[in-house]
Amino acid sequence: MICTQGHAWAFPMKPDVKALIQEAKQPPQHFVPARAGWNGSEEASASASLNPTYEDLLREPSPAQRREQLIAAAIPDWRVLAAIALCVGLLRLFKRNSSRSSRPATILPFPAVAIHKPAEVSEAA
To answer: Does pTM surpass 0.85?
Structure first.
């Protein structure tokens, strides 16, 4: 509520339509590439890539490479599998040890029967 109570002043914008049309009619400026050195134009040397990793990323992988990537993604690391198996084994061991040391649980029938019997009502009525 407090945020909506504020006042704001805006100045009306009156664009000059004639100036906007004149700017749109002008041809776009062509900027010449900057020269990096004194050996002439650098456009030819700029086409040769100096980053082989980037070039490898530009090429599309072959079907064999895709298969290898899918197989590598589908087969889990053996250390992860060992850690999960260790956790499962330890949890089973702890469960077995805790069930031996604890006393047997009290089993309640369902629906629970009241432990205290209510006083019997005489059938004098």
So the answer is: no
Residue-wise burial string across 46-56, b where 16 or more C-beta atoms lie within 10 A, e elsewhere: eeeeeeeeeee
pLDDT in tens, the chain (125 residues): 555 666 777 777 788 888 888 888 888 888 877 666 666 555 555 566 678 788 877 888 889 999 999 999 999 899 999 999 999 999 999 988 876 666 666 777 777 556 665 566 555 55
Q: Tell me the CA distances in angstroms from 61 to 33, 47, 54, 55, 82, one per residue in order.
A: 34, 23, 13, 12, 33
**Residue 5 — φ and ψ, nearest 5°?**
-85, -10
Per-residue b or e along 88-112, where b marks 16 or more CB atoms closer than 10 Å to that residue's CB:
eeeeeeeeeeeeeeeeeeeeeeeee
Domain locations along the chain: 51-98
